[in-house]
Please model this.
Amino acid sequence: MQPATELGLLHLSPCWDVVVVGAGPAGALAAHGLAIRGLRVLLVEQRLFPRWKVCGACLSPQALAALEAAGLPDLVASQGGLSLERLQLGVAGLVSPIAMGAGRVLSRCRLDQALLEAASAAGATVLMGTRAVLGAAATGLEPDREVVLQKGTARRSVSAKVVLIAAGLSHRAIDDKAGISTSIEPRSRFGAGCVLSGEAAALPPGVLQMAVGRSGYVGMVRVESGEINLACAFDQGMLRSAGGASLLCQKILAEAGFATLPGLKEADWQLTAALSRRTIPLAGHRLLLLGDAAGYVEPFTGEGMGWALTSALAALPLVMRSMEQWDGAIEKEWRRLHHRWVTSQQRSCRALAVVLRHPKISLGLHRLAGGFPSVTSSMIGMLQRPSIPYSRA
Ligand SMILES: Cc1cc2nc3c(=O)[nH]c(=O)nc-3n(C[C@H](O)[C@H](O)[C@H](O)COP(=O)(O)OP(=O)(O)OC[C@H]3O[C@@H](n4cnc5c(N)ncnc54)[C@H](O)[C@@H]3O)c2cc1C
Model:
């Protein structure tokens, strides 16, 4: 898995069964599943791994079930993933403990690297440090779809029977002419995050601390290295008026009833694009969108990776079918499958995101959590009940 060199790009085969753009959980798991099934897969990633990414690093039971169905049941444990046992929810100065289901915590550096290695071991060709942009839909005698690869000043086109766009929240993989548009939901929050040293908080392993404030929320958890992973969703206006991510984070922690953390100001904060969004259409000629690239809802319930991995699994049979022939029915079927396995699951999270913006309602929910922890635990369990397209690849 060397970074692509300009020479490497020139020597790359021009024709592939599948090109997957983006090696996050959606892209890497799709590449793994298709390579195992004998397809010639090129997985292209613009960054070099291991890399950190803004994410709460909590794997839901859904995410773990998807990995198991893909034949990778031990991947998280083998990387040192910790059990996620308890949520400490802080709202308006009140902090309540809530028992969690069977989730795990693993840093994105480790998880994404391990998934990439699994895809490579399954036979996928991996190009790192290379940006891919979807090319025009071919017509007439050239039925394949073009992808333009860029590394430094080198450019190279390859073609594939199917292209999977799994590029996360980035718009850069699809140019404006492709006829795919993303609408950002009004008042969508923005993601932000950083890593703090292990001494920054007295947070035991296995505990997710979630601070809910008027202008967003902050989730923090200790990862396998002992460091503290912070992931936040912020109102954009407040991010500006508070004077930046570290100050807004401090404000939300204080409002919620948690102690402030040393090192927030000096930390290397990363911001994301707007979070809540819908993309239309989810498929085009020889093209499917997966994971966050197909639409996302703000991360309060921590299920984005579960949706991303599930969408990768759901796409596999369709991609296999499309090796024979592509027809419009595949695009329609992907919209149906994506709705069944992802969009319908996102509804409850979308509703929760709206509720959390109303301080009185979220305080009411919080009192419910404090007074009836078992009810809240089972509500969380309901949101997190795993459901996967099929068992064991
Ligand atoms: C604040 C916050 C907290 C979160 N907490 C959690 C949580 O605790 N649990 C959870 O399950 N989910 C969480 N999520 C959501 C989770 O991070 C995403 O849903 C998940 O990463 C989606 O995976 P993906 O594979 O679709 O995209 P990504 O993980 O974003 O991967 C996309 C990859 O594509 C690459 N790429 C982009 N453009 C190109 C291009 N043109 N060419 C080549 N490569 C490209 C990127 O570099 C990236 O590596 C959180 C998100 C945020 C913002």
In short: Residues 328-355 form the longest helix (28 residues). The mean pLDDT is 89. The two ends are 24 Å apart (CA to CA). The longest strand covers residues 94-105.
